[in-house]
Amino acid sequence: MIKKGAVLVFVLFLAGCAYRGGIDQPVVRKLSWFSYLNGDDIRRQCTAGAPDHYRLVYNGIYLQQVRMYEIGGAPGAAMETGARGATMETRVLGPADVSDFTVGTPGDLFAPWRGAEAHRTLSPTQMQTLRDDLGRDGAFAGAPEGLELNSADFYWTVVACVGGKTHFAAYRWPSAAFKGLTFPQDVFAWDNSKIAVNLPHSVSTAALYRDYKRKYHKALSFNIRVGKTGLSDYLAF
User: Fold this and answer.
1) C-alpha span between 205 and 152 (Å, rounded)
2) I want to staple 237 with a disulfide (CB 3.0 to 4.6 A). Which of 7, 15, 97, 233 is the partner?
3) Which tens digits make up the pLDDT trace of 157-213?
4) For 137-172, how does the pLDDT look when each residue is reduced to its tens digit (9 = 90+)?
């Protein structure tokens, strides 16, 4: 359970941390990760007549792998949805490989932390399959209030704007809800990043953070909690 006191608790919806795009930017990601997971930008754009938009995030232990699937395009952009299908952006984050990185290297200094990116177009049939599977998985049935997610967990978060209404869902492994999910089969099949999925498995959390602190000198850890309609609060330490 999340406890307030020993660590500093941050309110999720700080104006300065509201996500407004640019998740590929490491600094933006650090400051607005929880707002991004909550889909604050999608919520602002989700009104009557708005195109369907899905953000599916797989946390395969935050320090090891995060997979982000943006389907429909960026809010405010010309999203290709409906009869023409949709665009799908895949971004996979893992430990930054900086073994050959030096400050004197020309070009993008943040490149090692941007993750791998891939794009593809989904057909109307594929979009219908995704909607059906998300519905079957309970993604439109309401947020699982009270569920807590740790950075060292395996879990999915879903933010969807469908028919002008925002939906939020989350699923943590191990659980019957996670085991019964069908939509991950869709996105993993369409994922053209060529990076293997870090599938759920048992891990020693203490050993995980000890190893990462030794290698990277620090290791981010956080808990997030689900409220009535999305993320309610979080703490990072």
Assistant:
1) 7
2) 7
3) 999 999 999 999 999 999 999 999 999 999 999 999 999 999 999 988 888 777 777
4) 999 999 999 999 999 999 999 999 999 999 999 999
Per the listing, tokens 């995980």 go with 208
State the residue range of the domain holding 138.
Answer: 9-95+111-236
Q: List the one residue out of 73, 182, 174 whose CA is nearest residue 132.
A: 182
38 Cβ partners below 8 Å, 6+ apart?
12, 159, 168, 230, 231
Question: Angle of helix 124-136 relative to helix 183-190, nearest 10 degrees?
Answer: 150
In whole angstroms, what separates CA 154 from the centre of its chain? 12
Name the amino acid, one letter, at 94: G
How far apart CA 37 and CA 5 sit, in angstroms, is 24
Which residues touch 132 (CB under 8 Å, ≥6 apart)? none
Question: pTM of the entire structure?
Answer: 0.81
Instruction: Identify whether the C-beta of residue 12 lies closer than 8 Å to the C-beta of residue 234.
Output: yes
State the DSSP H helix or E strand holding residue 38, giving kind and residue range, or none if neither. Answer: helix 26-38
Q: How many domains does the chain have?
A: 1
Integer Cα distance of 66 and 94 in angstroms: 7
DSSP 3-state of 7: coil
4 inside domain: no
Q: Which two tokens stand for residue 95?
A: 């430990």
Within a domain: 1: no
Say if residue 112 is preceded by a cis peptide, omega within 30 of 0.
no
